[in-house]
Write a structure and sequence with these properties.
The chain is built from 2 helices and 18 strands. By secondary structure, it is mainly beta. This is Isopeptide-forming domain-containing fimbrial protein.
């Protein structure tokens, strides 16, 4: 309410910024055909900068942040004051800003959800709207698979080699913030017995234990990359994993195509 537009027995002064409006909002990305959404929601709240004389300031909050938010990225120049209450995080302004650079870097940031939705609360204390850019993070390209030989006799003891090529996402381009982990999983057909694997990165052979770890759970083989390789400078480079397998006796009673799931 910016002013008193009629005579009033009690209110006789300007009421500008006497009240604030808070809105609790859930943003969700969906596919129009109803299929499960595999997109990660990224939002850029900005221009959080209204400081009122009455204490009714503009604020921005992430609801259930600990369980729903993957990462938050801020410029080193950011001046917002952060506070927590339970599982919620709130940012308060300290002064006004002007222009796109200040509004986004001093009074704004980027946040990525763990899923395709995000719940936030915005409190506005001025006669202007709050700014929220909503985006999707690029889907990581599927690994490239190859098999040698492409055809083999349906009998036990045949060696089959699988190769999986994985690309490390580029920080700030394919994903926001630091890459915290990278796991490559190959689930082999029950007619195959896993024997061994080797890993190379950008053409260089890696060392198990130093550069990566391997865990085997039944037919599932997982390779976890060590942190020192998950740097921004390495973004866009490729990991190549070569898996050695051998057919077992089950292939002699089931000679259909052998598929393996690589993620």
């Amino acid at each position: 309410m910016d002013y008193i537009d009629v005579n009033h027995p009690s209110y006789t002064a300007d009421m500008f910024r006497s009240y604030a409006i808070s809105a609790n909002v859930t943003v969700e990305l969906k596919y129009t055909d109803g299929t499960p959404c595999d997109l990660k929601l990224v939002m850029q709240p900005s221009d959080i900068d209204v400081v009122g004389d009455t204490g009714a300031n503009e604020t921005f909050s992430l609801i259930n942040a600990n369980s729903t938010i993957d990462s938050i990225v801020m410029n080193n120049r950011n001046i917002l004051v952060e506070s927590t209450s339970g599982n919620n995080i709130t940012w308060n302004p300290v002064r006004g800003t002007s222009g796109p650079d200040q509004e986004k870097n001093l009074a704004g940031f980027a946040v990525k959800s763990k899923s395709n939705s995000m719940t936030f609360e915005s409190t506005s204390a001025a006669t202007s709207g709050s700014l929220f850019g909503v985006y999707t993070e690029a889907i990581t390209p599927a690994p490239v698979k190859a098999v040698d030989p492409e055809q083999a006799p349906a009998k036990a003891g045949e060696t089959i080699t699988y190769t999986g090529t994985f690309t490390l996402p580029r920080q700030g381009i394919d994903t926001i913030g630091k890459i915290k982990s990278m796991s490559m999983v190959d689930t082999f057909d029950e007619r195959l017995d896993f024997q061994s694997l080797t890993v190379s990165f950008d053409g260089q052979t890696l060392t198990e234990g130093t550069d990566y770890t391997v865990s085997v759970d039944g037919q599932k083989v997982t390779v976890d990359i060590k942190d020192h390789l998950l740097t921004k400078a390495n973004g866009g480079k490729k990991f190549v994993i070569t898996y050695k397998t051998v057919t077992n006796s089950k292939v002699e009673t089931d000679g259909s195509n052998i598929d393996n799931e690589l993620t």
